[in-house]
Design goal:
It holds the Pfam family Mito_carr. With about 230 residues, the protein is mostly helical. Helices cover about 70% and strands about 0% of the residues.
């Protein structure tokens, strides 16, 4: 199909003008800094969304953890088999073993984003380079968050292994009687006491260095690219 050169040139010029306008609009996008945030909405919505997501995916996390820890296929043959056996033997509550403990990682989530924003603000006093601010702030935020998250994960993972999968861990809680809240806190205290008696404080930081080596570079690199493509 023949297109007149003048028409083609006009169309090309229009495309270039539109692209230039989009690029200019992109460059004019304001980066929201710490002082621009509505802190009340920032924290309240953050906690709500995090809780909703974690409540949804926690059963899958528990099943994955048990499948990873078991020897071969000694207890479960796969994801669906694990789901059925847990529901049959432990009920719905079995899929949420350790969930209440993991809610304390909400603290680490808020600590992460708070550290990120505050470090960005601090680095701004020395450099206006957005890439540098994001790099330093992202790495610092992950360091703080993992320092809080790892001990909570260690405790919650041990609780995940109780019940039907109790033979998969060296720590075992004794059955508790009484109100539900006593059962929960009793089991948690029991696990914490056993970990501390066996390994001391270091027992709560198993895998800490590996977590730092995983999450600090990831966070430090992700934020600069986020702002670059935003």
């Amino acid at each position: 199909m023949y297109i007149h050169p003048v028409i083609f040139q006009e169309a090309l010029d229009s495309c270039r003008a539109l692209q230039a306008g989009n690029m200019q609009q992109k460059r004019n996008i304001q980066i929201i800094e710490w002082e621009d945030l509505d802190k009340r909405k920032f924290y309240s919505f953050g906690v709500f969304m995090t809780m909703a997501i974690r409540a949804t995916v926690y059963p899958a996390t528990l099943i994955r953890t048990r499948l990873q820890v078991q020897k071969g296929k000694s207890l479960y043959t796969g994801t669906y088999d694990a789901l059925c056996k847990i529901l049959r033997a432990e009920g719905l509550r079995g899929l949420y073993r350790g969930f209440m403990v993991t809610t304390f990682t909400l603290i680490s989530g808020q600590a992460y984003i708070t550290t990120y924003e505050l470090v960005r603000k601090y680095v701004s006093n020395y450099s206006k380079d957005n890439t540098l601010k994001s790099l330093v702030a992202g790495g610092s935020a992950s360091l703080v968050a993992q320092s809080i998250t790892v001990p909570i994960d260690v405790i919650s993972q041990q609780l995940m292994m109780q019940g039907q999968g109790e033979h998969l861990t060296r720590f075992k809680v004794k059955p508790k009687t009484g109100a539900n809240h006593s059962v929960f806190f009793g089991q948690t205290r029991d696990i914490i006491g056993q970990i501390f008696a066996a390994d001391g404080i270091r027992g709560f930081y198993r895998g800490y260095v590996a977590s730092l080596l995983t999450y600090i570079p990831n966070s430090a690199v992700w934020w600069p690219f986020y702002h670059f493509y935003a």
